[in-house]
Specification:
Elements: H1 6-19, E1 114-115, E2 129-130, E3 135-136, E4 148-149
Parallel strand pairs: 1-3, 2-4
Length: 153
Protein backbone atom coordinates (compact mmCIF):
# COMPACT_ATOMS: atom_id res chain seq x y z
CA UNK A 1 0.00 0.00 0.00
CA UNK A 2 1.09 3.55 -0.68
CA UNK A 3 2.35 5.74 2.13
CA UNK A 4 -0.34 7.95 3.62
CA UNK A 5 0.09 11.68 4.20
CA UNK A 6 -0.68 13.43 7.49
CA UNK A 7 -3.78 15.01 5.94
CA UNK A 8 -5.04 11.62 4.72
CA UNK A 9 -4.56 10.08 8.16
CA UNK A 10 -6.30 12.98 9.91
CA UNK A 11 -9.19 12.67 7.42
CA UNK A 12 -9.51 8.91 8.15
CA UNK A 13 -9.54 9.68 11.88
CA UNK A 14 -12.19 12.39 11.43
CA UNK A 15 -14.42 10.20 9.24
CA UNK A 16 -14.20 7.34 11.73
CA UNK A 17 -15.08 9.69 14.59
CA UNK A 18 -18.06 11.12 12.68
CA UNK A 19 -19.39 7.62 11.92
CA UNK A 20 -18.93 6.47 15.53
CA UNK A 21 -16.29 3.90 14.63
CA UNK A 22 -12.55 3.65 15.12
CA UNK A 23 -9.87 4.35 12.53
CA UNK A 24 -8.60 1.32 10.59
CA UNK A 25 -5.00 1.97 9.61
CA UNK A 26 -3.84 -1.63 9.87
CA UNK A 27 -0.95 -2.54 7.61
CA UNK A 28 -0.59 1.05 6.36
CA UNK A 29 2.64 3.03 5.93
CA UNK A 30 2.57 6.03 8.25
CA UNK A 31 6.33 6.22 8.69
CA UNK A 32 7.82 9.62 9.41
CA UNK A 33 4.49 11.40 9.88
CA UNK A 34 3.90 14.07 12.52
CA UNK A 35 0.70 13.13 14.37
CA UNK A 36 1.32 15.03 17.59
CA UNK A 37 -1.73 14.83 19.89
CA UNK A 38 -3.63 12.66 17.39
CA UNK A 39 -6.82 11.04 18.67
CA UNK A 40 -6.39 7.35 17.85
CA UNK A 41 -8.17 5.76 20.79
CA UNK A 42 -9.22 2.23 19.81
CA UNK A 43 -7.65 2.55 16.36
CA UNK A 44 -6.43 -0.53 14.49
CA UNK A 45 -2.77 0.02 13.66
CA UNK A 46 -1.79 -3.66 13.63
CA UNK A 47 1.16 -4.40 11.36
CA UNK A 48 1.39 -0.71 10.37
CA UNK A 49 4.75 0.91 9.62
CA UNK A 50 5.04 3.70 12.17
CA UNK A 51 8.81 4.07 11.97
CA UNK A 52 10.07 7.53 12.97
CA UNK A 53 6.49 8.78 13.49
CA UNK A 54 5.77 11.51 16.03
CA UNK A 55 2.86 10.39 18.21
CA UNK A 56 3.86 12.45 21.23
CA UNK A 57 0.89 13.16 23.51
CA UNK A 58 -1.34 11.11 21.20
CA UNK A 59 -4.40 9.33 22.56
CA UNK A 60 -3.79 5.66 21.77
CA UNK A 61 -5.90 4.17 24.55
CA UNK A 62 -6.92 0.59 23.69
CA UNK A 63 -5.37 0.93 20.22
CA UNK A 64 -4.23 -2.24 18.46
CA UNK A 65 -0.54 -1.84 17.63
CA UNK A 66 0.18 -5.58 17.49
CA UNK A 67 3.16 -6.37 15.26
CA UNK A 68 3.46 -2.70 14.29
CA UNK A 69 6.89 -1.31 13.46
CA UNK A 70 7.59 1.68 15.72
CA UNK A 71 11.36 1.86 15.34
CA UNK A 72 12.65 5.33 16.27
CA UNK A 73 9.04 6.45 16.91
CA UNK A 74 8.44 9.37 19.26
CA UNK A 75 5.70 8.50 21.78
CA UNK A 76 6.62 10.99 24.49
CA UNK A 77 3.77 11.32 27.02
CA UNK A 78 1.45 9.29 24.76
CA UNK A 79 -1.58 7.67 26.38
CA UNK A 80 -1.30 3.95 25.63
CA UNK A 81 -3.45 2.66 28.48
CA UNK A 82 -4.81 -0.77 27.60
CA UNK A 83 -3.18 -0.71 24.15
CA UNK A 84 -1.94 -3.90 22.52
CA UNK A 85 1.70 -3.68 21.49
CA UNK A 86 2.16 -7.43 21.33
CA UNK A 87 5.16 -8.34 19.15
CA UNK A 88 5.58 -4.66 18.20
CA UNK A 89 9.05 -3.44 17.23
CA UNK A 90 9.98 -0.40 19.30
CA UNK A 91 13.73 -0.28 18.63
CA UNK A 92 15.03 3.08 19.77
CA UNK A 93 11.50 4.37 20.39
CA UNK A 94 11.04 7.34 22.73
CA UNK A 95 8.37 6.54 25.33
CA UNK A 96 9.51 9.06 27.93
CA UNK A 97 6.61 9.70 30.30
CA UNK A 98 4.19 7.54 28.29
CA UNK A 99 1.21 6.00 30.08
CA UNK A 100 1.33 2.25 29.43
CA UNK A 101 -0.94 1.16 32.29
CA UNK A 102 -2.41 -2.24 31.46
CA UNK A 103 -0.77 -2.31 28.02
CA UNK A 104 0.09 -5.64 26.38
CA UNK A 105 3.79 -5.58 25.52
CA UNK A 106 4.25 -9.34 25.36
CA UNK A 107 7.09 -10.32 23.03
CA UNK A 108 7.67 -6.68 22.04
CA UNK A 109 11.17 -5.64 20.96
CA UNK A 110 12.35 -2.78 23.18
CA UNK A 111 16.08 -2.58 22.40
CA UNK A 112 17.37 0.96 22.95
CA UNK A 113 13.86 2.23 23.78
CA UNK A 114 13.54 5.05 26.32
CA UNK A 115 10.87 4.18 28.89
CA UNK A 116 12.12 6.65 31.48
CA UNK A 117 9.22 7.90 33.65
CA UNK A 118 6.79 5.69 31.70
CA UNK A 119 3.91 4.34 33.77
CA UNK A 120 4.02 0.56 33.34
CA UNK A 121 1.59 -0.32 36.15
CA UNK A 122 -0.21 -3.51 35.18
CA UNK A 123 1.55 -3.72 31.81
CA UNK A 124 2.29 -7.24 30.55
CA UNK A 125 5.95 -7.49 29.49
CA UNK A 126 6.25 -11.28 29.44
CA UNK A 127 8.71 -12.26 26.74
CA UNK A 128 9.45 -8.65 25.77
CA UNK A 129 13.08 -8.23 24.76
CA UNK A 130 15.33 -5.35 25.71
CA UNK A 131 19.04 -4.63 25.78
CA UNK A 132 21.48 -2.78 28.01
CA UNK A 133 20.70 0.46 26.16
CA UNK A 134 17.00 0.32 27.02
CA UNK A 135 16.17 2.99 29.61
CA UNK A 136 13.67 2.27 32.39
CA UNK A 137 12.43 4.28 35.33
CA UNK A 138 14.68 3.80 38.35
CA UNK A 139 11.97 1.98 40.33
CA UNK A 140 11.00 -0.43 37.54
CA UNK A 141 12.46 -3.95 37.31
CA UNK A 142 11.97 -5.31 33.77
CA UNK A 143 13.14 -8.81 34.70
CA UNK A 144 10.55 -9.03 37.48
CA UNK A 145 7.93 -7.97 34.92
CA UNK A 146 8.92 -10.90 32.68
CA UNK A 147 11.05 -9.03 30.12
CA UNK A 148 14.18 -10.71 28.76
CA UNK A 149 17.58 -9.02 28.60
CA UNK A 150 19.34 -9.73 25.30
CA UNK A 151 23.07 -9.68 25.72
CA UNK A 152 24.03 -9.85 22.05
CA UNK A 153 22.95 -6.30 21.16
Amino acid sequence: MAKLTENQVRKIIQLAKESGSTADLSGRDLSGLGLYRASLSGADLAKADLSAINLSRADLRKANLSEAVLNQAMLREADLRGASLRRARLLGAGLLGANLQGADLREAHLAEADLTHADLAGADLRGARYNRYTSWSVDFDPKAAGAILELST
